Amino acid sequence: MSLLKYESTLREPLVDGDYSVYREVTYGIGQWNLNKTIGWGWDITNFVWWVGIGHAGTLISAILLLFRQGWRTGVNRAAEAMTIFAVMCAGQFPIFHMGRVWDAFFVLPYANSRGPLWVNFASPLLWDVFAISTYFTVSLLFWYSGLIPDFATIRDRAKTKARKLWYGVVSFGWTGSTKHWQRHESLSLVLAGLSTPLVLSVHTIVSFDFATSVVPGWHTTIFPPYFVAGAIFSGFAMVQTLMLVTRKVMKLDDYITLGHIEAMNKVIVLTGSIVGIAYLTELFMAWYGGSKFEYDAFYKYRIAGPYGWSYWTMMTCNVISPQLFWSKKLRRNVAFTFIMSIVVNIGMWFERFVIIVTSVYRDYIPSSWSVYYRPSIWEVGFYLGTFGLFFTCYFLFSKFAPVIAIAEIKHVLKTSGESFKEKMDVIEKESVEHFAHGHAH
Amino acid sequence: MGQVKKYIVGCFDDEKVLFPAVKKVRAAGYKIQDVYTPMPIHGLDHALGMRETSLHTAGFIYGITGTTTALTCMSWVFTSDWPLNIGGKPHLPLPAFIPITFELTVLFAAVGMVLTFCYLCQLAPFVKKHHFHERATDDLMVMVIECTERTNEEEVKAMLNSNGAVEVNVQEAPVGWWLGRYDRPSKLFKTREVAY
Amino acid sequence: MSIDLNTCTGCAACVVACTAENNVPVVGKKQVAKYHEMHWLRIDRYYAANRKDQFDDVNVLFQPMLCQHCDNAPCENVCPVAATNHSSEGLNQMTYNRCIGTRYCANNCPFKVRRFNWLDFTGADSFPDNQQPLIDEGGMDAIVMDMNDDLTRMVLNPDVTVRSRGVIEKCSFCVQRLQEGKLKAKKASRPLIDGEVKTACMQACPTDAIVFGNYNDKESRIYKIRKEEQTKRTFYALEAIHVLPNVNYLAKVRNTDRHVGVKEEEHDGGEAHEAKKEEKKEAVPSGH
Description:
The complex is a heterotrimer. By secondary structure, chain A is mainly α. Chain A contains 16 helices and no strands. Chain A folds into 2 domains: 3-404, Formate dehydrogenase/DMSO reductase domain (Formate dehydrogenase/DMSO reductase fold, Up-down Bundle), CATH 1.20.1630.10; 407-441, no CATH class. In chain B, helix 3 runs antiparallel to helix 4 (94-120). The model of chain B has no long low-confidence stretch (mean pLDDT 90). Chain C has helices at residues 13-21, 29-33, 74-78, 104-108, 132-137, 175-187, 200-204, 221-229, 270-278, and strands at residues 2-4, 42-48, 59-65, 84-86, 92-94, 115-116, 168-169, 210-211, 234-235, 248-250, 253-254, 284-285. In chain C, strand 4 (84-86) and strand 5 form a beta hairpin. The relative contact order of chain C is 0.20. Residues 266-288 of chain C have low confidence and may be disordered. Classes of the chains: A mainly alpha, B alpha+beta, C alpha+beta.
């Protein structure tokens, strides 16, 4: 049973996204409702949102591997795939928000005959270029190197010629040799060890886009840890959204258990609390710091004023709602978790919106304060297009690649899937006393 | 395809049975070509007497290369090639170089390691090797013993059976890898025949 | 550059001169309503009034706001492609053909003096026919099509680039005039004389509020204003951010016999009157 049957409904946003981008590149960014004061709106909000979502995948694969958390094996492959697709979606925004997209290659430092004219290595946007492309490459490599043995498993079990051919190509001729596994383990461990600081650094660098500016409301040193915690928060929420649907549709309840869901919810409540503390710290420093501009930016133009509604939406979704996960009953409830994961994602979108738009719409000089920014249909279309891209890629992945890390689960369970299921069937049929008795020895 | 050799193949389905079997086979002096498993098994590489991989050392070296490349290039560009006054910042803003240096370290280490891994394990699209058992990537652990002229096949087969092998057979297989497609069977040639 | 807020009358001749000199595009009403106007120089108005009688008795202050050419420019630091940097003479330079339009510099400018070419306002685009469809949809005024006509194009200053869609532009201290003046001086084998080159805004100002010159030249007017004549009135906009602007303003001084913006208490007796007499001679500066 695959998720691909839902793909046709998602083809529409993808096509609508293409048209929005085509219009923007041909006619100009003036069609968006950005202006001389609000230079970044939905475009960069969406960029940071997607990048944040991507971070959970790496966290699950890499950081949990280093912490020897065996339960990650149920969800890590799909989470890594989610990372790659989220970063692909994120990358659309910095590229297409440029006024002259066709000159986007100017950001690459390559030897040229214009001087040679290099790039500004001290600019946070350039750090972004390196960070996002490194993150994408490393995530792709980590994901793919884990997939090689799994593709080999499918290749060897394949019944049709076409499957044998294609899975043969993508499995690179993997045999399962012990020496190769030894190298593979070493590779996975080092890639995990590299990915962990990479995840932290990438979102830190994204936060530097704001933290290193002089705009009040952006210029704060709390951004790096706050953004990283927020990324993990929204990423885990997106993993929950995808995992709950995948497990239901593909009947993987035995592999993605309530235990997995509960563990992820614990991470959500932890990172949600960190994000909440960061919000309060920002408010405190705006009051304590003495800068009139920063004080006004928070107390007059953010928590109140025309955008007050967005701030309080953010607070409700991000701070108040995850606290409900302190209750074990709610942590282990699938329907509640699904709803909460959507709420958290919405809240995190609003966080980026609040940070970007409400800081910049009323900054230092009042003569520049501009209108209330509403997104144009093209910005909304572009955003929906990235959803189309993301879900199309995810569905294609779930159809053609193994959603669960086969070899890793076997490694953790020390047995194959069928044997595990047989054992569980036996255990489930036993009586409670027999089970307790058997395990006491 | 290269040389063809003869192998005796023993399949096990439990690692608790596999380890003693490996020990006995090695003690008896037979050469284990490899053990093919569906997942990595802790301690198997040591049981087989394999040396530790130095892939992580290679990764470290690639990382250092990345750091050096980043710092050297950026410093040269900003101080010697075309120094610009950007916001009054110094021409060698080392704190500003940190993010890119770190990213390139990670990038070089990761890409280098993966390419080295693929090279060492002879992995690439359209690479085909001889697979001793189709369930080696599924649920069987496949031990492959190389046959020399002195090997007594029946003795080896008996030993494997007595040590808990669920399946034992003899195969002739080409060594190494070749380019091929998995949907077509690979023909086995004992020697290379040259057609005039 | 020094701008004297005392003599500035807010007539905006400088704005018109700048726009004419630098080929600043006209965008039309609809785009101005979207805050997409392109003026490099604007006149900010500040009102000094008692809050309660806000519109009864108001004094206004005009402050022309242009690129401050900051030595510690927040815009230069953040451009990823190094499209904006500082010249050795202290000008903040803008390289139109390098700009890819990320708008980070415009966001980071605390004075908000950078302007982005949101649409094809000048007809200079290589994408053909990307103005008419937008005009037909009602997003843009037809006035932008005027510049596509060869005769109308003759109003453009040939010394100044016409910027295409997607690049940022801002006040350049009329660098084309500076270059012309420097070249003339070089050919005559002499340094630039103070007052020889004037920016368009300086040239147009009827009250000589704007003074531009070489601060390193100790004989120049700008040096004398900042260091000798008007030391008490000299201030920089948003000085606390420490962007080190190269444009200083001279504070407005009002000589009135009453507090600005406070209505006279007519039926109040001698007390208030006496208090006010003491303050009679005191000039109340009301600059921002």
